[in-house]
Amino acid sequence: MEPPLSEVFGRFFLPGPTEVHPDVLQAQARALIGHRGPAIKELMGELQTGLKDVFRTESPVMISTSSATGLMEAAVRNGARSRVLSLVNGAFSARFADIARACGLEVDTLDVEWGQALSPDAVRDRLSGGDYDAVTVVHSETSTGALNPLADISRAVRESDDVVLLVDSVTGVGGVEVLSDEWQLDFVLTGSQKALALPPGLAFGVASERLMERSKTATRKGVYFDLELFAKQLDNLQTPTTPAVSLLYALAEQLRRISAEGMVSRWARHRTMAERCEQWVATMRAEHGVGLSVLAPEGARSPTVTCVALPEDVEGPSVVAGVKERGFVIGGGYGKLKSTTFRIGHMGDHSPEELEAVLEALEEVLT
Ligand SMILES: *Cc1c(COP(=O)(O)O)cnc(C)c1O
What is the distance between the alpha carbons of residues 364 and 367, in angstroms, rounded to a whole number? Predict the structure, then answer.
């Protein structure tokens, strides 16, 4: 028989999906309700309060029954007109550019090496030379552990007239400070299974008034990801189509847990875990002579995921396998970083104490 859920928690450090707390998993085991009656409105009302706090916004938070990629597509379909500048510093930001291309938009990329963060000045320069109407950016690049300076990038984008900023903060929102209103983000989205530590299957997004204006005249937004429909139904505390109701129960429970912790403490807990990973890498070098390094440069590291570069003679997949033998799951390197790195996802509900255990296992594997 499988051990009880409460006994296995604390061993699963993938950078998404994230480990889900047993209380949140169990919250799904409730009878279903219809998606047009008073019961859903009551539930949605409660969810809005919690989600607005998470996103730091006064605007309604759209809830999509899709993975995060669905709302990445919604962002470009509703928000971009014809020419997009995609900021690319890893696999997910490259995907954002691909999505925009697949939606028929003309896309240029501003690339920096994987692992690095984008500079607001470079963004400003590129925008002043082109007639772009939208910029895509990934806040926390889960493939490399790099964190882009989102507030500063937003400020740089707003210096150009009529350019909207579309933000994937899938491993940001809920784990890293994201001030949607204060930073004037035109669309910011996340998925359920990353920093919010819910089961996969939902995505959340907040749109600015500017973006909703764009949506009104967008010609290729289709039906499922028409943000006007989301906004219209949200006015009535409902969703355009049947939502994944059981996941909404999980969300309600998780928002209660998040509210009890407080967003500021939550951000701090993630930052503490990232700093502990950095410190561990330094100790591995200094005391054990293992040539590890954190891929992203200091000052541009995500609090929710650490990507560790390995010395030449150690293969990423063998580290992941060694840790697995000791009962822990970590992330392998992503895409072209597969053999040279591994990733520790320390987002969601993980604690610094649990992180110690996986670092101990890693130390055994690497020494
Ligand atoms: C996981 C992830 C995605 C894709 O999310 P899905 O839920 O699989 O669609 C997009 N962007 C980032 C930064 C991610 O970490």
Answer: 6
- Note whether 252 and 273 are same-domain residues: no
CB 145 near ligand 1, within 6 Å? no
Widest Cα–Cα separation across the chain: 63
**Those residues with Cβ within 8 angstroms of residue 235's Cβ, 6 or more apart along the chain or in another chain:** 60
For the stretch 117-153, pLDDT in tens is 999 999 999 999 889 999 999 999 999 999 999 999 9
Number of domains in the chain: 2
Pair 281, 208 in one domain: no
Task: Give the SS3 label for residue 301.
Answer: strand
Tell if the pTM clears 0.90, that is, is over it: yes
Output the domain CATH number for residue 266: 3.90.1150.10
User: Which among 229, 261, 293 is the end of a domain?
Assistant: 261
Asked whether residue 233 falls in the same domain as residue 295, the answer is no
Q: Is 69 in the pocket of ligand 1 (CB under 6 A)?
A: yes
Q: How confident is the model at residue 6 (pLDDT cuts 50, 70, 90)?
A: low
- Closest ligand 1 atom to Cα of 138: 13
